[in-house]
């Protein structure tokens, strides 16, 4: 029996449940030097904004124990160049293309998503409601009313599935997830990075010019699992898990907590071919445990 | 076939150069033949508390045994752990990464400027040029440091059989002063077309960039930046360009033309 790794989320078929996370794989070109993008269930692009952005001045990444901090500041090529160049490259590959979208106000998200609606290979959009590194990034993320309104308005201009990416830097992530679901989100993805800081004791400066940055990597995996578990129990819409997945074992934990798919992020910076290894590992795990389809694992956490 | 690979390589030889400097030879690397001088590898320290890989310019290559060498000085946690490894230990290596130097034309005199632990890509460039039968007399290898002891693995450089011109700030070896003054001094009395290649500490690269700009001498610098991914996806190792905007040192670099990057 060959185990089936394919999953379907909001009507979109993924050949496997392993996607690359936004901001960790650019627009796919660099990773393609290392492995074929057709190994991926999907690729989630760097956040796209209306205008190109250079991002914050360096240093904008710092090493942390079992993880890292980043404050890139949404550096990206802007929607025009994304569609003209980057999407042309991506659409040649047999993988689901999820375009991550960010903006300074709701109208920016609407403008970018309306442009992407005309590009059939932008299979899905993922709304970055949770970038902690730009001062306006958290506005929508923290307010259920705004989040719901945002998803609803964006759904009017983008005809394919909309994923809402949630911030862990809120008091109740389930409340935001429910609001996004009410607004028509086809799925929610979580978690984005946790706000963190590191200090150089010799210069007495923060290690990032932005002072704070987003903490990612294995350090945040327990937080991600707890939040995925919580959100899975409170919404019907599929949950895509993100947060420190390094190995196939980590991925299995995410599925059991309720993730229908997982995104690999910071792992790409350390084990660049992690998605390929994780997919292979999952296949063996399913075979060993006589599980026909990966979706049979989703949310199958046993109770004490 | 992939242009970049991740492979587990064995430490086939570890050489203690003294004063916390080490050379390690790693094999078998399937891309050993594709390593041009100036390119680098990204090495995973086999410990979970050192999260990022560490970037090292390739120092030497032996295509026959598919081995590559790196030099490092113990400066932090990562290099301290590397220094503790032994022959036979395995390391995950990502590479080859980045772009190498553009070679000089045969009519040019190549000024090679190495500083301290930044010597490796300059050595490999010299070795490659000699293999390509570049005229030995048109290869000036300047090597600078604070003191004679900061010039590492000089024996290997000398084995190339070219003219080595050391420069030390305390005068313990060769020219007394910084490497850019040694270069200025030397070429003041020399004729010909020059092209400069440099790798070393930030201050030295700034001085080389200034000197080359002043003398309208073409050439390239190999830069360093803290580098999380090495592939161009994390956007962490950026530096500002003279023309505006940022460049990714790992992807567009680490080798840049004189004047291209704001130092």
Please describe what this structure looks like.
The complex is a heterodimer of chains A (304) and B (263). In chain A, the strands form four sheets. Chain A has an eight-stranded parallel barrel, surrounded by six helices. Chain A is globular and about 55 Å long. The longest helix of chain A has 15 residues, at 274-288. Chain A has one domain: Alpha-Beta Barrel (TIM Barrel), CATH 3.20.20.70. The mean pLDDT of chain A is 95. With 304 residues, chain A is α/β, with parallel strands linked by helices. Chain A is built from nine helices and 16 strands. Chain B is α/β, with parallel strands linked by helices and 263 residues long. Chain B has two domains: 5-97, Translation factors (Elongation Factor Tu (Ef-tu), domain 3), CATH 2.40.30; 108-257, Rossmann fold (3-Layer(aba) Sandwich), CATH 3.40.50.80. Chain B has five helices and 16 strands. A seven-stranded antiparallel sheet of chain B has the order 4-3-7-1-2-6-5. Chain B has a seven-stranded mixed sheet with strand order 11-10-9-8-12-13-16, with helices on both faces. In chain B, strands 14-15 form a two-stranded antiparallel sheet. The chains are: A alpha/beta (304), B alpha/beta (263). At the A-B interface, strand 5, strand 6 and helix 8 of A face strand 14 of B.
Task: Provide tags for this entry.
heterodimer; A: 304 residues; alpha/beta; TIM Barrel; eight-stranded parallel beta barrel; four-stranded antiparallel sheet; 9 helices; 16 strands; 20% strand; globular; B: 263 residues; Elongation Factor Tu (Ef-tu), domain 3; Rossmann fold; seven-stranded antiparallel sheet; seven-stranded mixed sheet
> How are strands sequenced across the largest beta sheet of chain A?
3-4-7-8-9-10-15-16
DSSP strand content of chain A:
15-25%
Globular, elongated, flat, extended or rod-shaped: what is the shape of chain A? globular
| Helicity range of chain B | 10-25%
- Tell me the span between the first and last alpha carbons of chain A: 32 Å
Give the tally of β-strands of chain B: 16
Instruction: Give the count of structural domains of chain A.
Output: 1
Rg of chain A is 18 Å
Content-based structural category of chain A: alpha/beta
What Rg of chain B is obtained from the alpha carbons, in whole angstroms?
18 Å
- In DSSP terms (H or I, runs of 4 or more residues), the helix count of chain B works out at 5
- Overall domain count of chain B: 2
How would a crystallographer describe the biggest sheet of chain B? 7 strands, antiparallel
The CATH architecture of chain A:
Alpha-Beta Barrel
Oligomer: heterodimer
Instruction: State the order of secondary-structure elements of chain A, H for helix, E for strand.
Output: EEEEEEHEHEHHEHEEEEEHEHEHH
Mean pLDDT of chain B: 95
Largest sheet of chain A: 8 strands, parallel, barrel
Structural class of chain B: alpha/beta
Helix content of chain A: 25-40%
């Amino acid at each position: 029996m060959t185990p089936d790794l394919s999953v379907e989320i909001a009507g979109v078929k993924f050949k496997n449940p392993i996607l690359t996370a936004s901001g960790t794989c650019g627009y796919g070109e660099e990773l393609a030097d290392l492995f074929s993008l057709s190994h991926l269930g999907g690729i989630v692009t760097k956040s796209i904004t209306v205008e190109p952005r250079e991002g914050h001045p360096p240093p904008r990444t710092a090493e942390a124990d079992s993880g890292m901090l980043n404050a890139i500041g949404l550096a990206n090529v802007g929607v025009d160049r994304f569609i003209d160049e980057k999407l042309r490259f991506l659409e040649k590959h047999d993988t689901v293309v999820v375009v991550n979208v960010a903006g300074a106000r709701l109208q920016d998200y609407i403008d970018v998503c309306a442009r992407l609606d005309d590009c059939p290979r932008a299979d899905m959009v993922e709304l970055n409601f949770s970038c902690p590194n730009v001062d306006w990034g958290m506005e929508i993320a923290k307010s259920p009313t705004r989040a719901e309104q945002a998803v609803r308005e964006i759904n009017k201009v983008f005809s394919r599935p909309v994923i809402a990416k949630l911030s862990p830097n809120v008091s109740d992530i389930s409340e935001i997830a429910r609001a996004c679901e009410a607004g028509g989100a086809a799925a929610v993805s979580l978690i984005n990075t946790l706000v963190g800081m590191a200090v150089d004791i010799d210069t007495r400066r923060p290690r990032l010019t932005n002072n704070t940055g987003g903490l990612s990597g294995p350090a945040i995996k327990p937080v991600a699992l707890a939040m995925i578990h919580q959100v899975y129990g409170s919404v019907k819409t599929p949950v895509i898990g993100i947060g420190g997945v390094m190995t196939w074992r980590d991925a299995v934990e995410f599925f059991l907590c309720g993730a229908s798919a997982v995104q690999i992020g910071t792992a790409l910076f350390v084990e660049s071919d992690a998605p390929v290894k994780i997919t292979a590992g999952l296949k063996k795990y399913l075979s060993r445990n006589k599980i026909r389809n990966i979706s049979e694992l989703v949310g199958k956490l046993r109770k004490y | 076939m992939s242009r970049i690979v991740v492979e587990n390589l064995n430490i086939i030889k570890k050489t203690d150069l003294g004063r916390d400097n080490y050379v390690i030879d790693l094999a078998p690397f399937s891309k050993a033949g594709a390593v041009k001088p100036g390119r680098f590898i990204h090495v995973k320290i086999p410990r979970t508390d050192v999260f990022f890989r560490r970037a090292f310019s390739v120092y030497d290559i032996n295509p026959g045994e598919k081995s590559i060498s790196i030099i490092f000085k113990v400066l932090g946690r990562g290099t301290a752990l590397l220094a503790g490894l032994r022959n036979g230990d395995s390391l995950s290596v990502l590479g080859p990464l980045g772009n190498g130097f553009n070679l000089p034309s045969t009519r040019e005199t190549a000024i090679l400027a190495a500083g301290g632990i930044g010597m490796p890509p300059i050595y490999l460039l010299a070795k490659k040029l000699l293999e390509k039968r570049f005229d030995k007399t048109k290869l000036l290898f300047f090597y600078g440091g604070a003191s004679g002891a900061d010039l590492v693995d000089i024996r290997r450089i000398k084995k190339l059989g070219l003219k080595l011109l050391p420069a030390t700030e305390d005068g313990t070896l060769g020219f007394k002063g910084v490497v850019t003054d040694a270069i200025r001094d030397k070429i003041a009395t020399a004729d010909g077309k020059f092209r400069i290649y440099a790798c070393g500490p930030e201050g030295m690269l700034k001085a080389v960039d200034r000197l080359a700009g002043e003398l309208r001498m073409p050439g390239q610098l190999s830069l360093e930046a803290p580098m999380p991914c090495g592939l161009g996806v994390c956007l962490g190792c950026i530096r500002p360009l003279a023309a505006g905007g940022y460049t990714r040192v790992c992807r567009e670099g680490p080798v840049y033309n004189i004047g291209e990057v704001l130092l």
